[in-house]
Amino acid sequence: QVQLVESGGGLVQAGGSLRLSCAASGRTFSYAYMGWYRQAPGKEREFVASILMSGGGTYVEDSVKGRFAISRDNAKNTVYLQMNSLKPEDTAIYYCYGSSSGTSAWGQGTQVTVSS
Fold first, then answer.
1. Listing from the earlier edge strand, what are the strands of the sheet with 78-83?
2. By CB distance 3.0 to 4.6 Å, which of 15, 33, 39, 80 could disulfide with 45?
């Protein structure tokens, strides 16, 4: 089974930056689509950004566009989320998601806390 493991979360001051990583481990397999979602306390999980592993097409949610960027390293089967100009409202647990036809998986999440 392919597992997704996030890392890179932490506590940062407003205006700071963090880079999240999501590595797919397990048997040799690559998800065609990978994305980042987040869930703030008391709120539903929401989409942040996505990337197609073949071709690299990306999509970023409007509220983070211009501040967040998603990228991939196919050789490492890893997806990154570069987060700049962080705001307190970006505080959430960030989850990695991967899918291909017939299969999908979520990571365990990594906490991002932005202090004002």
1. 3-7, 18-25, 78-83, 68-73
2. 39
